[in-house]
Amino acid sequence: MPSVLVVEDDPSIRQSLIEVLTEQGYAVRSAADGFSALREVTQSPVDAVVLDLGLPDLDGGDALRMIRGISSVPVLVATARDDEAEIINILNAGADDYLVKPFSGGQLLARLSAVLRRTSSAHPGGGVAAGAAVAPAAEPLRPTTVGELAVDPGARTAYLAGQELRLTRREFDLLAFLAHHTGQVVSKRRLLTEVWREPYVDDQTVDVHLSSLRRKLGERASAPRYLLTVRGVGIKLVAPR
Q1: Where are the alpha helices (DSSP H) in the chain?
Q2: CATH C-level class of 144-237
């Protein structure tokens, strides 16, 4: 049975999240502030954390960085902040995914189940909610070199002009998949299905990660080098001309 730590200072929201998760078979613990959450993660490891950013003692972003300093536990951020730059910063700080408030119980369960599926191999103690469908294994990705970009999925490394890129787990998965399909236009729906393993999650999830990935590749959507958008179709990775 997967265990989840809910970090939320609002008592009514915290109780609602606990009820939704408990009904789906999760073992739930909770914390009302950042330092309590850190103690919980340190003293009794969990399979995942649902983290609010508006905490009374710590900014949630700082709490996330502290959690990342002591644990690789999957973290799903729940936030009322919908600014793209803020979300990118949170993902770069180590969040595995995010939800913008208000969200439904169904959205929470879908995102959490997806995070647990994606990280179960890296976190053997993790699990999947009872009844959750597990996506079939993806085609193994091979090392690929595109221009000055070298991506090795086995070693989980990516280099640009000889310099290692500092990518989040999701950014690397996205880049590796696109590199594996170099020159092919890949739709956002396919990325959500085969990288996120969640075909019904909104497209903004891909947009946010692509924006962050572009920045780390030294490009912008208006001046692309490796990541070309084919309007209305999808995205493809190509060698710069």
Answers
A1: 11-23, 34-43, 60-70, 84-92, 105-119, 169-180, 188-194, 204-216
A2: mainly alpha
